[in-house]
Amino acid sequence: MSSRWIGQLEYRVPYADTDQMGVVYYANYLVYFERSRNELMRAMGLTYKELEQRQLGLPVVSAQIDYKTPARYDDLLTIRAELAWVRGVRLQVDCSVCRGDQLLAMGHTVHAVIDLRSLRPARLPDELLARWSQAVPGAEAAPAPIAAAGAAAPPQPTTVRNA
Amino acid sequence: MSSRWIGQLEYRVPYADTDQMGVVYYANYLVYFERSRNELMRAMGLTYKELEQRQLGLPVVSAQIDYKTPARYDDLLTIRAELAWVRGVRLQVDCSVCRGDQLLAMGHTVHAVIDLRSLRPARLPDELLARWSQAVPGAEAAPAPIAAAGAAAPPQPTTVRNA
Amino acid sequence: MSSRWIGQLEYRVPYADTDQMGVVYYANYLVYFERSRNELMRAMGLTYKELEQRQLGLPVVSAQIDYKTPARYDDLLTIRAELAWVRGVRLQVDCSVCRGDQLLAMGHTVHAVIDLRSLRPARLPDELLARWSQAVPGAEAAPAPIAAAGAAAPPQPTTVRNA
Amino acid sequence: MSSRWIGQLEYRVPYADTDQMGVVYYANYLVYFERSRNELMRAMGLTYKELEQRQLGLPVVSAQIDYKTPARYDDLLTIRAELAWVRGVRLQVDCSVCRGDQLLAMGHTVHAVIDLRSLRPARLPDELLARWSQAVPGAEAAPAPIAAAGAAAPPQPTTVRNA
């Protein structure tokens, strides 16, 4: 089931992304990470664009990346994201960039939840927190969320549309 | 006097701007053009940021550029912009990129005037149109704008603040 | 047959490409053009990477672009390139960016042929010139290239691999 | 004395660097870091361009950044870099981005030393290692490097050319 919760895309490296060392310039990997996060959110059932329409944003508060092997022009990269953890006001996404089976770079970003009108911290709606919590690897094996008698079960992954 | 109406800046080329051919990637010149336009507007007395605060924007409707000689990493470039013409709803800015005396690239952008709330075409306020018209090279030599008896003279360049 | 000679790709707009006007920043369209040129060359049977391995490059000598309607975050764009004309030392590629049926931007780039070792002008090998000439729209209807007795026919499009 | 060993520049934020949240897109801070590293190397007496002419490169092997407060269009940023530590085959640079007195972002990059011909790990020449070691904050107060009686003092910053 976990594969449903991975954001993944293939990306062909343009000349634009290279630098004069003949490899992809290091800042571009953070753009690659963003692309995979977009696909992760799409996979989790609510795109980032839709999140913004609800007046919520997820600005990056920190980023970390390890560069293993350089990507090059015209490489066909596979970029992946998955949710490491999520709390009401903050979440972490782990990302990787591969060329075939070879891991080129990996890292993560931590995001705050903000209200786009005030640009101030906000809490994720319970519905989203519950749904996204299920996207954290290993979440399926975790004790079920406390469900008081009569309480609605958390949204099931089966309802997730993958556009 | 005309030098007051030129937007100009020096810019040190970072590695980020290069590509694997060892030269500045061609799309970056449009960013250089933008930087010089920002300085042109500052020189003309109203920054683009201040224009936006008046709910006006100048999106690019067309761009043209000729690449003469490549810029390279760590070059100290001089980027210049001047107003080619301005009408109520549209204007053109001519830009150039030099390394010392050597012309590396030149081109222009045409901009529409829009209302940022509706993103629809708008007219420049008469005050701005009058002021900016004076920034067009040769404008000083042009016949004086029609000045009906008692009409206020167009704003004088001497009032221009150069931040 | 002409569709074989079009470079085309779909591209999902990341947040990275937007600016504070809420639309794709204008310089990024030149990157989009590059992406479609890469696919055009792949479609014509020799990738730009392979061309570089032959020590040939196609730096841009001029670019022109008209912006019709802004692209936005998360739009799925279709970017297309086709060869407008090719001569021994220069060629032009026409590009367009669409969202569904809607044309957002169109323009072209003119490229010089250079030797990557000297970075000086060079001529396309006859084989490439002949092959690419066939990719120019309408080329099929043109008079057949002069084929002296015993001369080899130009390479046929049927030999083109589309990776 | 330590201020001589800081790479520092002022940088006016262009529209190009913003995104539709109205702030500087997060990947651009890594470009800002690079700009300050370039100035740090210039301050330390050998530019990165000159290092490359010696066939040495300093690719990034990891990067980390904390985003405190967003930078915005037309902000005049002060970007600073200093050497955190240096060893024969690796070094770390700490960077910060400020608007006036306000810290907007801070982080660091770790760099490998490589031979640009082979793209394989290399050692810094002793001369560079010795010179750069003095640029590490606190290095002046540190126990003197092995100094046999009568040995020459470590190279003085006064020998540093600041281009």
Plain-language structure description:
The structure is a homotetramer of 163-residue chains. With 163 residues, the first copy, chain A, is of the alpha+beta class. The radius of gyration of chain A is 17 Å and the shape is elongated. The first copy, chain A, contains three helices and eight strands; from the N terminus they run βααβββββββα. In chain A, strand 7 (114-115) and strand 8 (120-121) form a beta hairpin. Helix content of chain A is 18%, strand content 32%. Chain A has one domain: Hotdog Thioesterase (Thiol Ester Dehydrase, Chain A, Roll), CATH 3.10.129. Chain A has helices at 28-43, 48-53, 126-133; strands at residues 7-12, 56-57, 60-67, 76-86, 90-99, 102-112, 114-115, 120-121. The two termini of chain A are 17 Å apart. In chain A, strands 1-4-5-6-3 form a five-stranded antiparallel beta sheet. Chain B binds chain C through residues 21, 23, 26-28, 30-31, 34, 57, 59-67, 70, 109, 116, and chain C through 21, 23, 26-28, 30-31, 34, 57, 59-67, 70, 109, 116.
Number of individual domains of chain A: 1
**Which two chains share the most extensive interface?**
A-D, 21 and 21 residues
Query: How much strand content do the residues of chain A show?
Result: 25-35%
Order of helices and strands of chain A: EHHEEEEEEEH
What is the rounded Rg of chain A? 17 Å
Largest sheet data of chain A: 5 strands, antiparallel
Q: Determine the structural class of chain A based on helices, strands and strand pairing.
A: alpha+beta
